[in-house]
Design goal:
Elements (H helix, E strand, L loop, with lengths): L7 H42 L18 H10 L8 E11 L8 E10 L4 E8 L2 E8 L2 E8 L3 E6 L2 H13 L13 E7 L2 E8 L2 E9 L5 E10 L2 E15 L2 E13 L2 E17 L1
Antiparallel strand pairs: 1-2, 1-13, 2-3, 3-4, 4-5, 5-6, 7-8, 8-9, 9-10, 10-11, 11-12, 12-13
């Protein structure tokens, strides 16, 4: 007669606690790895936010040298009286699509921007993938990570820096005090379109902002690197709302204007907007 301790049910009962311990250990390891990953991003955020900041506030004189459309826009969105050196933080949720034939992935993200640090950090998650995109200290970097355990991709070259600088420039709609940056050269193209060229650490990006009849920016165009290829880019902003005394767009989409047709690769809406003032 077969002894009871060899019965498959007994073996399963013996294995279950072991499997439970292994599962708990895996969860602990992943949790610790994600915690360490987030801690590293927090250090980068502190570096971006703790740059020396002045208490100067924006006056109408600071807008005198701007093209009329940009000046009127900044007045309309409410930057007068705001600190010249500001930090903002907000949440995002949306969809990102990297290839025309691939399905879009939903994501949640936190974004940090600084007008004095002249940069941004975008920390996103689309389980099990973590993404950190940044422009900090004149250098762009994109990092794609698996559950905090392993970097799948790290891009930090000239093309990445130029593209990240272009993203920062276009997304100043979420931090409009940054349009007063002395490193931006402005040129009026038409009454409703202005060209801006931002140059940081020898890297330049030219962008074209279009204004609606109501005076808001609705589109932003330029050429950014998509990996190693320079491609036409279009950003569309909609639904301006009041956050901390600023009128900023609630939604933004971004598309690559490819030869094969447009690829809307990014669509997001924001919430929990916070303006940090020092």
């Amino acid at each position: 007669m077969e002894k009871s301790y060899n019965h498959p049910r007994n073996k399963l009962q013996m294995a279950l606690p072991i499997l439970g311990i292994i599962l708990v250990l895996v969860i602990i390891i992943i949790g610790a790895a994600i915690g360490l990953y987030n801690h590293k991003v927090e250090i980068e955020k502190e570096l971006l936010f703790t740059s020396i900041m002045s208490s100067e506030i924006i006056t109408e004189e600071d807008l005198d040298s701007l093209p009329n459309a940009m000046k009127n826009y900044l007045l309309k969105v409410g930057i007068l009286g705001k600190p010249k050196h500001s930090n903002v933080q907000f949440l995002q949720r949306g969809v990102i699509k990297t290839h025309p034939e691939k399905k879009g992935r939903s994501f949640k993200a936190t974004q940090y921007m600084s007008t004095h640090g002249n940069g941004f950090i975008w920390k996103a998650r689309s389980f099990p993938i973590l993404v950190r995109d940044k422009y900090l200290g004149g250098q762009g970097e994109v990092k794609v990570n698996l559950l905090g355990l392993k970097d799948l991709t790290v891009q930090a070259n000239y093309e990445t820096t130029q593209s990240s600088l272009g993203r920062y420039f276009g997304e100043l709609l979420w931090c409009p005090m940054g349009f007063l940056d002395k490193d931006i050269r402005w040129e009026e193209m038409t009454p409703n379109t202005v060209k801006g060229v931002i140059t940081k650490d020898g890297v330049s990006f030219a962008g074209y902002f279009h204004f609606t009849d109501e005076g808001f920016i609705d589109t932003f165009r330029g050429q950014r690197y998509r990996d190693t290829s320079l491609e036409d880019f279009l950003g569309v902003a909609k639904d301006y709302q009041n956050h901390n005394g600023l009128l900023i767009p609630r939604t933004m989409t971004a598309s690559w204007e490819l030869e094969s047709g447009p690829l809307e690769y990014f669509k997001a809406e924001i919430s929990n907007y916070k303006l940090w003032e020092k």
